[in-house]
Amino acid sequence: MDSLTQITLGAAVGVAAMGRRTAVWKAALWGGIAGTLPDLDVFVDYGDAVLNMVRHRGESHAFFYLTLLAPLLAWVVSRLHGEATLFRRWWLALWLVLITHPLLDAMTVYGTQLLMPFTNHPFGVGSMFIIDPAYTVPLIVGVVAALRLKNARGLRWNAAALFITTLYLGWSVVGQQQAERVARDSLAQQGISAQGLLVTPAPFNTVLWRLVATTPEQYFEGYYSLLDSAPTVRWTAYPRGAELLARHGDNDSVQRIAAFSKGIFSLSEQDGRVLLTDLRMGQEPAYVFRFDVGASDAVGADAPVQLAMRPDLRRGLPWLWDRIWGVDAPLPVATLSLGEPPAR
Q1: Residue at which a domain ends, from 104, 124, 144
Q2: What is the three-class DSSP state of 198?
Q3: pLDDT tens digits for 188-205?
Q4: Is residue 291 part of a domain?
Q5: Which pTM value belongs to this model?
Q6: Residue 75 counted as domain residue
Q7: β pairing state of 208-214 and 196-201
Q8: Residues 74 and 98: beta-carbon distance below 8 Å
Q9: Pick from 73, 108, 124: which residue ends a domain?
Q10: What is the residue range of 289's domain?
Q11: Which residues touch 341 (CB under 8 Å, ≥6 apart)?
């Protein structure tokens, strides 16, 4: 999830775990700091753009390493505030903060390697968008109430916010399952035999769902809103680059994205360059993770370069609002800028 959400979640968990044993501001402060620590791996350069993507949410998000970090961080915090007798409580509180960070990240589609070093499998439920105000705002309200009221009532507000947002996470899974049922029924009705199916929310909500189905030769994109008048999906087909995959499937970058995306990717050619796209994040034709992996006759000769995709927000946001409410509308157009990767 985004940094604001992780900081706020960390503060809320810290306040809930410490209760009235220490000042609320201390619990909120250190909860917020610990809540953002795992994402500092964005500053690590692993060697190229593809490695930077697939190694993000790796060791810094793994339960094993975060569990080792928790007592060290608790020792620093308890000594800094002269609260050595609260060391064990700080340990518990900061461990909960550190662990809830990757657990929340795992609700998104990106892929979080929770069980390193035992496996680098990227866990991703995919039922939450990376930014969702319906999740973040209640946490902010709860933490602010705890800081301002500074009494049991404030702690109850904070606990209520954590309860409500946890229910929202559960709701997101229910909504995802409903959208998946509609997608599978629609694919069967239209005679599309899909090998892979992605069901993930459109930006900022859990009502409108983006659907991507893959076959060896094509991928199909569609949208379904839980408020649509009929449980149907209009699929649009795009070439997946089967011939390019046959030629370049053994390339390291292609293999890494294929594994990390669980097969929801494509290859294409533009101006003699081969483009590798993770189809999970973005929408046609704008994707967050698209890479130039080299000339068509020399793929892998140079390090992959991430391409910047800029959606037209002036058209995109009104489309999103209308589509959430069940209004059918064509997707907005995006622009492609080579060699200008967005911030990680």
Answers
A1: 124
A2: strand
A3: 999 999 999 999 999 999
A4: yes
A5: 0.92
A6: yes
A7: antiparallel
A8: no
A9: 124
A10: 243-344
A11: 49, 305, 306, 307, 308
